[in-house]
Amino acid sequence: MLSRRDFLKVGAAGLIGLLGASAAFPDLSVSTGSARAAGTMHGRVTYPQISAYNIPSKKGVKVNTYKRDSILDIREQVTGGNASDYNRVWYRIGDESYIYSGGVQPVETHLNPVVSDLPEAGSLGEISVPYSGSWWGINRTPFPGARLYYSSTHWIQGILVDKRDGSLWYRAYDHLYSAYYFIRPYNVRILPADELTPLSPEVEPEEKYIQLRLDEQLVLAYEAERLVFRARASTGKGEFNTPTGWFKTFHKRPTAHMVGGESEAALYDLTGVPPKAYSVELLHHRKWSCITRHILA
Question: Which end of the chain has fewer CB atoms < 10 Å from its terminal CB, N or C?
Answer without folding.
Answer: N
